[in-house]
Automatic annotation (TrEMBL):
GO terms for cellular component: cytosol. It holds the Pfam family HTH_18. This is AraC family transcriptional regulator. Residues 341-361 are annotated as: Disordered. It comes from the Bacteria. It comes from Vitreoscilla filiformis. Residues 241-340 form the HTH araC/xylS-type domain. Residues 348-361 have a biased composition (Polar residues).
């Protein structure tokens, strides 16, 4: 875990601990403890389903699992997706010209790399659809394979054209999982479960968009992988990113700005700002809640501030309000979360994550 606070512009994302649970599921016990420790994730947190972990910690965990198994797909498929496969696949997309050609090339590549799960692209008028075909029998593995493949595909799609492509709807063949709220962050708000097929839909107008990335930008993308793939694509010029940056400057204020305040700051009508956020699959309230949650986790893990001070910094007028909000976000009290993280940091250090090979690069 970092010791010093990051610069104000740094984005601090978190993910559900359920992804960490699934990520280490096929590791032997000793290897599981080893990669969790290297990633800075206390094993006991895996027993608390509502806990969240920093995005960089899950990124380090993904790399650690890939290193242990020589498999960038967590041992979910009968055929290993050997270390380096993602990098080779990403390189093959640069010369495709348009998003549609790159996407079809990407899906063909996954069909070669994996035996049990693959995807196909189809178009119906103004709607484009990616349908998954999944032959994995274990329910937990089946769900995690779909989550992982979809975020890989969507992350690469967005990066290729240099902007976030909003998903309009997503359907899942399995039942609604306990961490389904995470799907609104990863995919979109319009979700259906227990459907005949797992599919994600987006506007077909995106398909002719040109591939804007180069070999130089690919190197940067891979240097930040898998965090650049798993977490929501960050277009620094998007309205979501602009508002996150603006909101971060309000740390320490008792009253965080309303949508109307932010619209005025950007010299536009509130409805215009609302529509622009909706086009990016976001709402102002969820953006504000997610930012405060992620900042709370960052300060609990990386700063000497007391819990009440952190709550005040994030605009909670009463410590009890911050305690309730954090318990709702993460399933544990902020003090308990901090104590668990400090216990993990106090343990004898194993392999330094910084020294680990960057398997997805």
């Amino acid at each position: 875990m970092p010791v010093l606070a990051p610069p104000p512009s740094t984005e601090k994302d978190t993910v559900s601990v359920q992804f960490a649970v699934c990520a280490v599921r096929h590791l032997p016990p000793e290897a599981r403890v080893r990669v969790l420790h290297a990633a800075g994730i206390q094993p006991e947190l895996l027993e608390q389903p509502r806990v969240r972990v920093p995005g960089e910690a899950f990124s380090a965990l993904w790399l650690g699992v890939a290193r242990e198994m020589n498999d960038e797909f967590f041992g979910l498929d009968a055929r290993r997706m050997k270390v380096g496969s993602f990098s080779v696949l990403a390189h093959s997309l640069l010369a495709c010209g348009t998003l549609e050609r790159a996407l079809r090339q990407l899906l063909r590549g996954f069909a070669v790399l994996l035996d049990d799960v693959n995807a196909e692209l189809s178009c119906d008028g103004e709607h484009a659809c990616i349908t998954l075909h999944n032959r994995i029998t274990d329910a937990q593995d089946r769900r995690f394979a779909e989550e992982t493949l979809l975020v890989m595909i969507h992350g690469l799609m967005c990066w290729l054209v240099g902007r976030r492509i909003a998903l309009t709807h997503a359907t899942f063949a399995g039942p609604q999982p306990e961490h389904s709220a995470e799907y609104a962050l990863l995919f979109c708000n319009a979700l259906s479960f227990d459907t005949p097929h797992t599919r994600v839909f987006f506007n077909a107008e995106a398909l002719p968009a040109p591939v804007v990335q180069t070999l130089a930008s690919l190197r940067t993308f891979l240097q930040n992988a898998p965090q650049s793939v798993f977490l929501k694509y960050k277009n620094e010029q998007s309205w979501t990113a602009k508002l996150r940056r603006k909101l971060r400057t309000h740390q320490g204020s008792q009253d965080w700005p309303t949508l109307e305040d932010m619209a005025q700051a950007f010299h536009m009508a509130p409805n215009t700002l609302r529509r622009r956020l909706e086009a990016e699959g976001e709402s102002y309230q969820s953006l504000k809640d997610h930012l405060r949650r992620d900042l709370a986790i960052h300060h609990l893990c990386s700063s000497p501030l007391g819990v009440a001070e952190i709550g005040a910094l994030l605009g909670f007028q009463e410590p009890s309000a911050f305690y309730r909000a954090f318990k709702r976000w993460c399933g544990v009290q902020p003090g308990a979360y901090r104590a668990q993280q400090r216990l993990q940091q106090a343990r004898p250090s194993g392999q330094n994550v910084a020294d680990s090979p960057q398997n997805l690069r």
